[in-house]
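protien #1 (seq + structre)
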Amino acid sequence: MSVTVSVTGTERIARAFRRAREEQRLAIVVYLTVGFPDLAATIPLARAALDGGADVLELGVPFSDPLADGATVQRASEIALRSGTTLARCVAEAGRLAGERDATVLLMGYANPFLRYAGGLAAFARDAAKAGIAGIIVPDLPAEESAEFDAALDPQRLARTDLYAPTTGRRRKLRGARAPAHDAPDRGRVRREHARARFDSSGHCGRRRRWERRPRHGRGRPRSAARGRASQLRRLARRRGEGVMAVRGIRGATTVARNEAGAIYEGTLELLRTIVQLNGVRPEDVGYIAFTVTDDLNAAFPADAARAGLGWTAVPLICGREIPVPESLDRCVRVLIAWNTAKTQADVRHVFLHGARTLRPAWAVDLPGDTPLGVP
């Protein structure tokens, strides 16, 4: 099936949110990295997202030096770049989707690839408009420095998305937004605003939460559920039968018998395996792991247990020293895992083993051979 590309980018975005509002639901925005796991998979994955109810697709343009991506998106971009994915290929893939399904497609990427597009920004804008792309999202482009992009995008009626923090003043937002905006709560308390798309502002469907009622320019315009603002979004999503994933912290600690590389490795590996077993942690859901050791442990890095013992080579790991408080626990390894999970905070199992059980008795886990706490 082929659809003639005739509507502008801003019209596509407005149409997507208008449809969601008419159906009295949140608009669903799905992000996919072009070229991951390979270029041939991009179109089938996008089709599946559209078939599953996506209103808008954000197609990520892989870049070698990202400033605002988590580990998962970084790894996806690295794989896509190795397979030869370029901005031109991203435009071509987005064009296939727009032509085949009349989909609302945005390209999300950093400024450099757009600036280095063959023929410059004007050529990119012409190609994007011809392909039926609705607009672009550029995380590292402040509105105050967007004049060069605007000069190329405006004639083609393509939307440019700004990123504003909730602490951004209303005056600065108004300077950057010359047309009605679409706000989307995002990870890290960042609000996406399609600051140049002209939306029908006839109202917002359903009950509005506290974060939706806050005064701002563009009040009353449609919003999409994106990543972040976990507690509010989780309540809203649960009411609609949807799911939201939040970042949780898992604490753990253990003690080792000797300041030897083998003892540190085995003790840390035992701790990590227990955490994994009790919580069902998968490496692809881990944001990072921070280890600390007391001053009397310097024979090895505890992070080696995660890399070599669990094979978690793609998870960001860091080691540090614990504050040497007098009379604190000796030969102790501590860990903090940032975990992306749908579990509530109360459902997370923290793990304190062996001598470290005395630090947090409520989180103590007895292993075979341990003497129960409180037993002489």
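ok now protien #2
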Amino acid sequence: MCATNYDRRESIEGAHLGINIMRRSNYKLGHQQSMQKSDKKIVEQTDLSLLEELTGAFEQGRTIRLLNGDLTLLEALQSDDTHTSSMASLQMYNLIGNRLTKRLVQDQRFPGNRTKMIRTDNGGCGFYPAFVALPLLRRALRTGSPEDAIAWLQEVLSTTVATGKTIDALWGVPVEQEIPLTEGIKLVPIDNLPESKNKQWMMGAEFSNLSSPIITTLSFTPPQSALVVTRKIDPFLFDPDLGTELTNDEYLKTHELIKEIVLVLTVVGPRVAISAAQWFTFDDPDLEEANILSGGRSMQMLEILPLGAKDYPTLNCAEAQEMVAGYINLTGDNRSKVRVALQRLNQALRRHNTGDSAVELATGLEALFGDSDNSEMTHKIRMRTARVIGGAQQERIKNAQLIKRMYEIRSKLVHTGHVDLNKTFKIGEQSMTARDIVDQAVQICAQAIKTIIRRGSIPNWSVFDILEHPDSPVFQAQG
């Protein structure tokens, strides 16, 4: 009905324009004046139609209650329960259908039928005109003002550049203060994150979802910290019809760096550092409200689930900064091999079986201290590990013995599928179980990785094995 009335008014105004043109002696001036008056009437009428359409839906929306009257429509929309929020979205669509979108397209303050998508850190999402009606009504319900909602949409569509944050929440890395790790990446306590749906989800009871058939203690342990990456989104809006190609090169590079930083934090403790979830949020809450992907998150699939969530000590800030900076400065094979060692150390800490942990540690140590000659590998690994870590004579002897015994545990599992956890081994004058030895080997592996990172390269073993001094100038990268 509104569209028909609008068409009739426009026709009447056109007729008046024709009369004005014929009656005025100055055709050009009369035409310009009549067009200005006609345009003004059309704009005013369009404003009224958009506002009326939105106000009508707003008034109806305020009366709707869901879940036996327990929730208003807005409360249901903001619910963390997917079923409830979906039901509320359907109710909103029933209120507005395509009518509000048509009014927006007709309104000369907006871009007509031209598509405007919102860019985020890793791509874009639809916004105007196909997906804007629901956010517009939701804004009106939240602020209690349809006029404010229309002004908000004008502000969003006039934004050219935005800033935001890529956030990666972490298990196992408690911190007490903000720690800058690189120029654009910092580690912060989870409580310091800006308020968002994802933060509420992680810190709330909904995080412990017992509907999944696979449950670990991580399901009941909210993340304690998060890596935060500052991002500039330029342009904020783009029109896909213009053929502009968006690339995700920067996002992919940053995403890979985040994964590596999480691995590096493994050696500071050592600890099981695991990414819990990652999401993006705009700094301006008005822009975040326009993002239809707000509240979305990505989570990695964990190949090895830890048995329990340990209460790790607060992260050593200075050591974390040193390790991250040193790792980033590694290049070529040095960085690749250290990354393998970090991955295996992290997996060794997650393993439930003592023998499996020994296999992971052996693989990590061989990435650092192995060479192309596979003969006498166990001997070379234990000797090189002890020498690189250094220390007093008795410490070196003990470390070499622990690595040797760890390899025996590894071989026992590989060749028999079983490790006798009651059997004890002699390390100097001390008797140790297989679990004790593997736990000590974890510490040795972490120390070895840190030493290589601090040195900046893996030694040239063909020279190192002869001189036996890691402080020698020949302690340099291979090839």
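The CA atoms of residues 28 and 404 lie 99 Å apart.
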